[in-house]
Protein 1
Amino acid sequence: MNIRNRVMALLSMLVFALTASNALADNYSFTGNFNRDNDVQLFNFTVGADTTVTLRTWSYAGGTNAAGNLVASGGFDPILALFNSSGLFIDDNDDGGSFVPADAASGARYDTFLTSFLHAGTYTVAISQYDNFANGPYLSDGFVRDGVANEWFREHYLDTSGLYRDSHWAFDIENVQAASPVPEPSTLILLAAGLASLGYIRRRSSK
């Protein structure tokens, strides 16, 4: 996760906070694929009032996500890290234990499962592959496996049980006001420019 992407993550959090609605708490499901072993997928979410939030993956052992969709097994061994609006590390999770199903192929319970009582505000959660943990104490400090030399540190999604997995991930964020993946840098820049233009138009029309 390079410096440019970290800056984009902070900018995305600002844009996300400005555009989040006053919706009631809900569950959000996301799916996607990594391009290389050391990728990190970031999500921003908003908590409208002090509450317990659940963060979990489905892609290692498979199952039915919060949206009611069946997720295939066979994904890489995921880990997650949670940060507050200042980018300060809060908690992480490697394996969900008895809270997640066992994979049919490996027998391992490697999907993540984390519940955390959070105050109202905006947060960021990162999904990465074991053992690409956050360096901490801030998101801007990056991750253990950052850098070109570590792009294939798991030899194409090889897990610790000795099985080759694939690149897909599936992630739920439950009981939050709003949630979205952090966009690619180019998309985020366009969105920020659009919001700035909208603000300018509003100022002009109010004169």
Note: The domain at 3-205 is CATH 2.60.120.380 (Jelly Rolls).
Protein 2
Amino acid sequence: MRNIITLSFLFIAFLLSAQSTPGKHSIRLLKVNTKNSDFGVNFYGKDRVVFASPTEKVSIVRRTWDGNDQPFLDLFVGDIDSTGQIINKTTLRGDVNKKFHEASVTFTKDLKTVYFTANNYNEKGKPIKGANGFDNIQLYKADVASENIWNNIVKLPFNSDDFSTGSPTLDKDEKKLYFVSDRPGSIGKTDIWVVDILPNNEYSEPVNLGPKINTEEREMFPHIDEDNMLIFSSNGHPGFGNLDLFAAMIYDNSVSEPINLGEPLNSPRDDFAYILRDRVVGYFSSNRKEGKGDDDIYSFRVDEPIFIECLQTITGVVKDKDSGELLPGALVSILDSDGNQLQMTAALEETAVYSFDVPCNGDYTLVATHENYLKLEVPVSTVNDTDAPPVTQDLEMELEFKPVGNEVLVNINVIYFDFDKWNIRPDAAEELDKVVEVMNKYPKMKIHATSHTDSRGTKRYNQKLSERRAKSTVDYIVSKGISTDRITSEGKGESELVNKCSDGVPCSRKQHQLNRRTNFTVQERTIDQTGGDEKNETENL
């Protein structure tokens, strides 16, 4: 009963640990903010950042954006001090910042390539209006020669004059580019899309992330962290009001349901442009009331990490390997890759079905036990996909003992030896461990090991060889703690071949190997219907 209670608590603890949680964050408003919009921080190396802020260009004519009557946005560079404040703010120089908006950048890890958002210009720097009458934002790519020199600035091929495309972010392997667009095929007002980055500056066709992520409203400002977690803003998923921050895991062929990151990251106002470094520190933006300007940049520290649950089902039937008979009541446990038991269950009474829900993308071992059957261990793995179908793994168990003629043998695979050898091979050791397991289960049981050779060599030599094989077998079992008075052995040489491969008969190596074997006959054991020992009744077999 104590073990069952322990297993129950283990199972409950496992389930609790697997729940998706939004983590905990400590936030702080930064001094770098202006009275206008400051947002969209991205790390530029270890100690620097690039972000969007109102232009500081001096102009005779005050240029403002009709959307909020504020100056157009430019890209700025700043240093990060020891407290996370952004200092030494300077305009990003060169040809990047033009008359209208530039914002939302992402760099490759080697800092040699940058993707960024800007208004749509022609080669002469004139704005291009789309069919909707707007100068829609576009995605650009550039080579980074130095902080202030971005060369070979090009528009990405999936842009269009007639819709907006922006807010880029790369996945952790830098093989996919995620972005925001209101292009045809969008589910809502703006959606998150993805393309594969192909050789020779080519890209796949954009793919919508689908209804788990995109709603009929706005999904914006995606960021993929180093664990391939997608952080984005949405006013379509349930939240605190306006744009909230959400997290979802990107898997091989699917994406998880998003979770709201809660307070203090989210507020009744707009909260967006989350970016994380080293799983510890980061920045986000918000226009909450206590801010300094319109949109403000906040730093944060992760006190507890975001965790997104991904579970897959492993299920199957427990049955007799030879007869196919169902084995209800068999105990099945599942171990992690370190051998720690995660869960335990009993196969259902009528169907002998077992089932576990375990984390995706893991390697596990199923362990099945049943009265009068050998313990069975089977490796099984889950994939990195929350929408994957259940992993089906039937467990076919073998009886501990099986009758062969007038004898009863320990039911294991035959122990084979290499030609002219008597050492215990690794595959043979696995089978001998099963013999040890059975003998430990039945402490009164005694067995007899019989070793054989193939027909090659003289009969006298083969007799000696088989005796060496029998001794090696006994020595191995004794080394595992079995008393010498519980196991006897003999060598039969080539006298009991299992096939036609006698002297002078041509046979393959595989056919000869079938004769190089050791069998185990049960000489004496105690009969007990519960699988244990009774002292009074003994059967000689």
Note: The chain has four helices and 38 strands.
